[in-house]
Amino acid sequence: MDSRYSNYYDNVTTLHPLALAMLLVAGIAVLIVRPRDMLLPMLLLGCLVPAAQRVVIFGLDFMFLRILTMLALARLLAMSRFRRFEWTTLDKLFVAWVVVSILIPTLRTRSTGMLIFQLGQSFDAVGIYLL
């Protein structure tokens, strides 16, 4: 990836024991609280743990908030919460914004690294939006 778009902690696993303990507690909370309360542990983790705390697997950065988002979405899918999903105008506009936010920077820079970065950012946005 072009160095203009990277931070000193990109592609490096950074785990502080206290932050890892907070991730485990928040992950358990996401699994046991009522579905409408799942955002609270995510909000607390997002505010209290720096984004530099991450796990890198095969060059893909999994920030703690991204890990919790995947866990929460998996729980909601297991509970069949998305069966009743009906598209609204706001949903369609949001999806259009996500597609444009992936395409424009990628086409502008013609960089695979930018595409991967934008896909990660879009996953975060869509995941939080769905929750």
What is the mean predicted local confidence, pLDDT? 87
Number of strands: 2
Q: Calculate Rg over CA atoms.
A: 16 Å
Structural class: mainly alpha
The profile of the biggest β sheet is: 2 strands, antiparallel
Summarize the helix and strand pattern as letters. Answer: HHEEHHH
Strand content: 5-15%
Principal-axis shape:
flat
The total of helices stands at 5
Task: List segments where confidence is low: pLDDT < 50 over at least 5 consecutive residues.
Answer: none
Biggest sheet strand order reads: 1-2
C-alpha end-to-end distance: 30 Å
Q: Bin the helical content.
A: 55-70%
What does this protein look like?
This protein is mostly helical and 131 residues long. The protein has a two-stranded antiparallel sheet with strand order 1-2. Helix 1 packs antiparallel against helix 2, helix 1 packs parallel to helix 3 and helix 4 runs antiparallel to helix 5. The two termini are 30 Å apart. The model has no long low-confidence stretch (mean pLDDT 87).
Topology (SSEs and partners):
Elements: H1 17-32, H2 39-48, E1 54-57, E2 60-63, H3 64-78, H4 89-109, H5 112-130
Antiparallel strand pairs: 1-2
Helix pairs in contact: 1-2, 1-3, 3-5, 4-5
Could you give a quick summary of the protein structure above?
The chain is mainly alpha-helical. It has 5 helices and 2 strands; from the N terminus they run H-H-E-E-H-H-H.
